[in-house]
Design goal:
The chain is an alpha+beta fold and 315 residues long. It has two domains: 17-180, Gyrase A, domain 2, CATH 3.30.1360.120; 230-315, Elongation Factor Tu (Ef-tu), domain 3, CATH 2.40.30.110. It has helices at residues 34-39, 86-97, 122-128, 171-180, 217-225, 309-314, and strands at 2-3, 9-10, 17-20, 24-30, 54-60, 66-76, 79-85, 106-109, 116-120, 143-150, 153-159, 231-238, 247-250, 259-266, 272-279, 288-290, 299-300. The strands form four sheets. Strands 16-13-14-15-12-17 form a six-stranded antiparallel β-sheet.
């Protein structure tokens, strides 16, 4: 919903249908060691991933900073598909390939072969049925994944094949729902900016603290168990255009940024919705501004999941 000029709530329309996700791409990993290789590189348990589920996963630097985020599915005993922002795909593919070495794993850009479709509302219900978030319902060679709902709207992601309903959903509406789900996507503008917990990645299922080592694992684990998380991601609306990577400033400390936009999408009524990684101390009092201390004011919204007690108390 959004406010009109008289303060009345306006219904948000156009949240039904299917669209092609041109802002995302697909990496294919194939070979006898594909799952084992990815298991040693990503933040989630890839070896334990079966064909009944999808998995959210991150790829970190040695310093524990996210280089990419993925939705991962297994399509066979020796093949997996990784969906990610197209803006990071080439660099991520190159970086991962450097570490394959003698592993029997081939990594390729499969975007042209495996189109991605987003489905919302009735189209998602048709595709995903009664599946729970991250469960799969495959059909006629297409891999379909039920995603977390957003704004009460059922969503699904499809790898390849033909979607069950035609493309009547605008991409900007899908991107808004994607953002409102609270699941972050690492884009080119935010590579190497965040430890997973800064963007709630472990709260959305993107980090497995029981699996073996991966690049940056010690730093990610230390942040989790030593209580050193002083920044978190929150949802805001702002009456201005916004973009990933923009800095956010707080009234109480105008000389330096208090946070950064993780993802941004046009709000269906006006302005933008943004996911912002921000210092927890900056949420206690005062205002947050986009781009500069005199910039547009950010109005905080509600994420569809809870933030740990320490973060909530700071807010």
């Amino acid at each position: 919903m959004g406010d009109d000029d008289n303060g009345r709530m306006q219904p948000i329309t156009g949240l039904e249908g299917t669209c092609t996700l041109t802002h995302w791409g697909v990496i294919r990993a194939s070979g006898a060691d594909a799952a084992a290789f990815l298991h040693g590189q990503l933040t989630s348990d890839i070896q334990g991933l079966d064909t009944a589920r999808a998995r959210l996963a991150g790829y970190c630097s040695a310093k524990g900073r996210l280089q990419a985020s993925f939705v991962v599915v297994r399509t066979g005993p020796e093949e997996l598909l990784l969906a990610c922002s197209r803006s990071v795909l080439a660099a991520t593919l190159k970086r991962l390939s450097m570490f394959v070495l003698r592993s029997k794993c081939k990594l390729v850009d499969a975007t042209a072969e495996v189109p991605l479709y987003g489905m919302a509302g009735r189209a998602a219900v048709t595709a995903a049925g009664a599946a729970l978030p991250w469960q799969r319902i495959d059909d006629a060679g297409a891999v379909r994944v039920r995603l977390p709902d957003a704004e009460g709207v059922v969503r699904a992601l499809q790898f390849g094949g033909t979607p069950p309903e035609p493309g009547t959903l605008a991409l900007d509406r899908w991107q808004w729902l994607e953002l409102r789900s609270g699941v972050p996507t690492i884009e080119a503008a935010t590579v190497d900016a965040f430890v997973p917990q800064m963007v709630n990645f472990e709260l959305t299922g993107g980090v497995d603290f029981k699996k073996g080592c991966y690049p940056g694992q010690e730093i990610v684990a230390r942040s989790q168990y030593r209580g050193t998380i002083k920044r978190r991601m929150f949802l805001f609306d702002v009456e201005a255009p916004a973009a990933a990577g923009q800095e956010v400033f707080h009234d109480g400390d105008p000389a330096q940024p208090a946070g950064m936009v993780v993802n941004a999408a046009a709000h269906p009524v006006s302005g933008s919705s943004v996911l912002v990684e921000v210092k927890l101390a900056a949420l206690a009092e005062g205002g947050l501004h986009l781009g500069a201390i005199g910039g547009p004011v950010l109005a905080r919204g509600a994420l569809p999941y809870g933030i740990p007690v320490d973060a909530a108390e700071a807010a």
